[in-house]
Model the fold of this input.
Amino acid sequence: MIAARRNGLVLALIIFALDQLAKAWIVYTVHLQDQGSIPVTDWLSLTWVQNRGISMGLLNTGDSGRWPITIVTAGIAVAVGFWLARERNRADALALGAILGGALGNIADRVRLGYVVDFVHLHVGYRSFYVFNVADAAITLGVVVLLLRGVLKPQPRPSGSPS
Done:
């Protein structure tokens, strides 16, 4: 296995572990589910959300969507895993590892609990942003890196074309 792939897999495992440890801390130490919300700063709160939809609460289907969403996200995770297994570029492999680790963290919640534990709540004044978790942040960062690399990566020129 080349280093890029190994690094991506290691990052996936680290993100999965950090996500699950953060959620365990929120549930079993902070008991956020009993408190609802805890202000941390003027712009950050820990806020309990049982996310039954997809990323950041979109397509909230309630209990009826638990297994369909779990199956679809598991399929996506498998596809990302296959992509990672073939990836040679270090940055892309790390981005894929971030996506894979985050997906596995959220899938574990859905299987175990029926919902994803979200708790990081960013807000400024009356503007409130989505409540998310470590897995969501990793998935978002991985997708942004892949998109930026796809847009900014120089494309090979066909032979014989002017430079």
